[in-house]
Hints:
Blueprint: E1 2-9, E2 19-26, E3 31-35, H1 42-49, E4 57-62, E5 65-66, H2 71-76, E6 78-81, H3 93-103, H4 108-121, H5 137-149, E7 155-159, H6 167-182, E8 186-190, H7 194-200, E9 203-208, E10 211-217, H8 218-222, H9 228-235
Parallel strand pairs: 3-8, 3-9, 6-7, 7-8
Antiparallel strand pairs: 1-2, 1-4, 4-5, 9-10
Helix pairs in contact: 3-4, 3-5
Amino acid sequence: MLTIKNLSKKYKNNDKYSVRNLNLSLNEGEIFGFLGKNGAGKSTTIKCLTGIIPFDEGEISICGFDIKKNPIQAKMNIGYVPDDHAVYDNLTGKEYAVFMGNIYGVDKETLAKRIDKFAELFSMSKFLDRQIRSYSHGMKQKICIIAALIHNPRFWVLDEPLMGLDPQSMAEIKGYMLEHKKLGNSVFFSSHNIDMVEKLCDRVGIMHKGQLLEVIDVKKFAKTGKSLEEHFLDLTKD
C-alpha cells in the first residue's frame, strides 16, 4: 500500500533535515498511527507522501505507483485530509464534494450515492446546502473527510483528524477508519492523542527530530504491560 525508502527532506534556508533517512512500509487492511512532538517531522512526511511538497532524497510509492514518476496514478489512490481545512468557503458542502468527485472522475450517479452515504454517516445531510464558511470546526473537518473519500481511495491519509472535535464527531470518524480497514484499505494518520492511537491502530510509528525511531506492533506491545504514553515520552526525551 505504501513504501517509503530513505526519505529525506530539508527546507530551504534550513541547516537541519526535517525528515532524515525514513524507511516505512504499510500493509493493506491496516491502520497506522504516526506519533511525535510538534516539529518532529510528521506533517512533512505526510506532505511528501501525498505529493504536496518535493523531497530531496529517497523514494515513495503508493499502491505500486512512484509519487515522482507517476504522480497522477499515485494520487488517484490517496484520500488526504489536511490539518488546516483547506476548502473553498464560498461553496456549499455539496458543491465542494461534487467538485472533488469531478476532479477524480467519479461518475454522476456514483457521486450522488456516495455524497448521500457519507453525509448520513457523518451527520452532515442537513448541512450540505449551506456555504462552508458557515460551518463549525467539526463540520469543516467532516466535509474535508467526505471529499477525501468521494473517489473510494485505497489509502486514506489524515493529519491530526480529531483535533478539536466533539465526542460524537470523533466516534463517527474513528468508526469509518475501522470500516475502511475492513474493506481491505489502509489508514495513515498523525495524532497527539496517544490513548486513541493505542486503541485504534495496528501499528504505530514514533518520530523524533526528523527520524523514525521505532515502529510498534500494538498487540505485541500490549503484552509487555507497558504504557505506550510512557514509552513515547521516554523515547522522545531531549
